[in-house]
Amino acid sequence: MKIIIVGAGEVGYNIASRLASESKRVVVIDKNPDAIRRLSERLDIQVITASGSNPKILIDAGIKETDILLAVTDSDETNLVACLITDLISPSTKKLVRIRNSDFDPYHDRFKKENPHIDTIINPETEVVNTIKKLMEVPGAVDVGDFAGGQVKYVGIRLDSHSPMAGIKLIDFPAKFENNQPLIAAIIRNNEVIVPRGGNRLESGDLIYLVSEAEKLEKTLNLFGKKIQPIQRALIIGGGRIGERLAKLLEKDCIKTKIIESDIDRCHYLSEQMDKTIVLHGDGSDRKLFLEENVSQSDVIVSVTDDDETNILVSLLAKNLGVENTITRIGKSNYFPLLASIGIEKIVSPRLSAVSSILQAVRKGKVLSDISIFGERGEFIEAIALETSDITDKPLKKIAFPKGAILVGIIRDGLIMIPTGDSIVKPGDRIILFAVKQAVKKLEKLLTVKLDFF
């Protein structure tokens, strides 16, 4: 598979790194020589220093033999033009475009209908806001997502020392929980991702990723000593595009919301846009302002400024003042391994949201969703099992999954089943798999032809 990426920023760099590690043929085009140099020095890919919306450059890059074009520069206009030019030169090439401008949202569906030359539109900031909302709905979780249109949830929770689950082996789950046993997809321990087997024992301090039917999620969380509590008061630090979108969403849910924004002109703009949200001018990392506004009374503090360091400082300050539920926007991937050690675990990233959306579109066949977790070290994949696939109509114990990959759920007729060695996947089943980053390439080689969903 050949992929051309227009844009060598954070999103372009990280998706190029991910795809190159899976032996995809990758070409990156960007007119910024420093960004291109960074890629060429670190990745085994082809790079071109030029404008990705230039027809000649696209032809020279081999657009006619390219399977997918990813237009992910910071300019919406450049991305749209690159897709349009590609459609004229190579109509069969699949085209994905990143759009950041929120003014585009109301016209999203109409635009896609009237512009068939674009296959997929990605707005990472919209995805981040949706992720924040999901995290707010499950305060005890550090990560939340869903499959099957929301019928099935995955939740990442930290196992406390007093949790009733600490010390239990997975092989003992059936006897202990009978039909209510939780489905454990992954265990993160000492900064390493573990694909669980029956012999694994849950330990205090583990970050556990579990999968549950949405209607049973609260009951499942109770098994781990976690409770779902409604959010009534929220404080947002940073009134940029993400902060604005989130505040409007919270207003609809009648959540009392405040925004602290450092730019006075932006404050005036936000005041005009909001109906009930209180907009405050000030430095979100100012302890005195926090005390004046009684932030300890907030159910959640969401820090979404454009500066990672400010967001980290705000979350630490909030925790110091007694607010346990904090959500932090982080852009730099090198921060991820360090944050849990200082108590910052609920992290959202526009870059990771973009990578997940792009991977979903890049995977072949019947992929319904593709979600990266833990700094892209693990990957959930939801797909439809086809009649011709090697995974159907035989017991799972007879299927050789690569080390680091596991089938964690089978959804049939709206019901989720926990697979055992004797389980049989039927054609048309939704299946949920989890794999560590290193296993994805092997899983793809094993399943591409037979399963036909990568």
Q: Secondary structure elements and their pairing?
A:
Elements: E1 2-6, H1 10-21, E2 25-30, H2 33-42, E3 46-49, H3 55-60, E4 68-71, H4 76-89, E5 94-98, H5 108-114, E6 120-122, H6 124-137, E7 143-147, E8 152-158, H7 173-177, E9 183-189, E10 192-194, E11 207-213, H8 217-223, E12 233-237, H9 241-252, E13 256-261, H10 264-273, E14 278-281, H11 287-292, E15 300-303, H12 308-320, E16 326-329, H13 336-339, E17 347-348, H14 350-362, E18 367-373, E19 378-384, E20 405-412, E21 415-417, E22 430-436, H15 437-451
Parallel strand pairs: 1-2, 1-4, 2-3, 4-5, 5-6, 12-13, 12-15, 13-14, 15-16, 16-17
Antiparallel strand pairs: 7-8, 8-11, 9-10, 9-11, 18-19, 19-22, 20-21, 20-22
CATH topology of the largest domain: Rossmann fold
- Total count of strands: 22
The share of residues in extended strands comes to 15-25%
Mean pLDDT: 86
Structural class: alpha/beta
Uncertain residue ranges: 449-454
- How many domain units? 4
Looking at the structure, what is the overall shape? globular
Structure, explained:
This protein is α/β, with parallel strands linked by helices and 454 residues long. It folds into four domains: 2-122, NAD(P)-binding Rossmann-like Domain (Rossmann fold, 3-Layer(aba) Sandwich), CATH 3.40.50.720; 129-223, 2-Layer Sandwich (Alpha-Beta Plaits); 233-347, 3-Layer(aba) Sandwich (Rossmann fold); 353-451, Regulator of K+ conductance, C-terminal domain (Alpha-Beta Plaits), CATH 3.30.70.1450. The chain contains 15 helices and 22 strands. The chain has helices spanning 10-21, 33-42, 55-60, 76-89, 108-114, 124-137, 173-177, 217-223, 241-252, 264-273, 287-292, 308-320, 336-339, 350-362, 437-451, and strands at residues 2-6, 25-30, 46-49, 68-71, 94-98, 120-122, 143-147, 152-158, 183-189, 192-194, 207-213, 233-237, 256-261, 278-281, 300-303, 326-329, 347-348, 367-373, 378-384, 405-412, 415-417, 430-436. The strands form four sheets. A six-stranded parallel beta sheet has the order 3-2-1-4-5-6, with helices on both faces. Helix 1 packs across helix 14 (350-362) and helix 6 crosses helix 14 (350-362). The N and C termini lie close together (11 Å).
